[in-house]
Every structure is written in structure tokens, then in C-alpha cells.
Specification:
Blueprint lengths: L1 H25 L2 H22 L7 H5 L8 H20 L1 H22 L11 H18 L2
Helix pairs in contact: 1-2, 1-4, 2-4, 4-5, 5-6
């Protein structure tokens, strides 16, 4: 599992760099996001079709809260578009490391309070030291 999470991070850095370059060529990070999400939809649908094991029924689908159908996509477009906008100005390592710092801080706070309907994981001294250590590492990566 840990290696899959690592590979996912590599893939996100690759796609961010490629699509930021596309945004430069298209002169619009939002258009690059549109292209990326359109093609992502096609690939996600293909992967879904190829991996169908069992399907949901309409009763289960109706029980899914309405906001879950669009809120994840909304935040994806905002986050990814901001990456595509900032990468050409800051560089990929600076943008990704600052994004990672934002993810870490939010995720530790979110875990502590159980936001997003996920299990709680209390903030501990050990977790705080871990986050501070990673942020210090990110600062070292970005120092000139």
C-alpha cells in the first residue's frame, strides 16, 4: 500500500507538470484543466468498465448525499487549476512541496476532528513533530 501511495504521488507530479505545460501552450490553466478532466473522465470510465465486479442498485445510489456528486470535482478543478497556474511561475518542486504542506496541515486537522466523514485520528505530539519535520524538509528543498 505504501508503495502505491508513493507511485500515486509520482503520477500526480508528472500530470501536474505536463498539464501546466499544456496550460502555457493553451494560454489558459482552466482550459488545460478542462482537457485534463475530460480525458481523465474517459480513462476513469474505461478503467471502471474493465474492473466491474458488482454494481450498485438505484436504492443505494439514491442514498448518496447530493453534495458528494459534485463537491470532489469542484475542489479537484480548483486545486489542479491552481497547480497549473503556479507551476510555470514557481516551478514544479516548489508548487508540489507547498501543495504537500497544505495537504499535510489540512489532513492532520481534518483527521483530528473527523471531518469529511472519515475516521478520527487525534493530533499527537508525534504527529506534530512529523508534520514539522516534513515542512522543514520542504523549506530546505525550496531554499536557494
Amino acid at each position: 500500500m505504501l508503495s502505491l501511495a508513493f507511485v500515486a504521488g509520482v503520477f500526480l507530479a508528472i500530470q501536474s507538470g505536463l498539464n501546466a505545460h499544456l496550460g502555457i501552450l493553451l494560454k489558459s490553466p482552466l482550459l488545460a484543466s478542462t482537457v485534463a478532466f475530460f480525458t481523465s473522465t474517459i480513462f476513469a470510465f474505461l478503467f471502471f468498465v474493465l474492473s466491474i465486479k458488482n454494481s450498485l442498485n438505484w436504492v443505494e445510489i439514491k442514498q448518496i448525499p447530493v453534495y458528494l456528486w459534485f463537491s470532489g470535482g469542484f475542489f479537484s478543478v480548483l486545486g489542479i487549476s491552481l497547480y497549473y497556474y503556479t507551476i510555470p511561475k514557481l516551478g514544479i518542486s516548489t508548487t508540489i512541496s507547498l501543495g504537500l504542506a497544505g495537504q499535510l496541515v489540512f489532513s492532520v486537522i481534518s483527521d483530528h476532528f473527523g471531518w469529511l466523514n472519515l475516521p478520527t485520528e487525534p493530533i499527537t505530539v508525534k504527529r506534530i513533530i512529523g508534520v514539522i519535520s516534513i515542512i522543514l524538509g520542504l523549506l530546505l528543498i525550496n531554499s536557494k
